[in-house]
Amino acid sequence: MNTLAHATGMPGRPFEAPVLLKEGTRLLEPDVYRALIRGQLAVIKDYSRYRRTPLAPLARLLVRREARALGRLRGWAHAPMLLGIVGGLSLAMEFVPGEPLGAQRRPSEETFRQLRGAVAHLHANGITHNDLHPANVMVNGDRVVLLDFASALRVPRWMRHAPVLRELRRSDLANAIKIERRLTGRTPGQFVSQVLADPRWVTAVRDGWKRFYRGFKATFGH
Ligand SMILES: Nc1ncnc2c1ncn2[C@@H]1O[C@H](COP(=O)(O)OP(=O)(O)O)[C@@H](O)[C@H]1O
Ligand SMILES: [Mg+2]
Question: Phi/psi of residue 198, each to 5°?
Answer without folding.
Answer: -65, 125
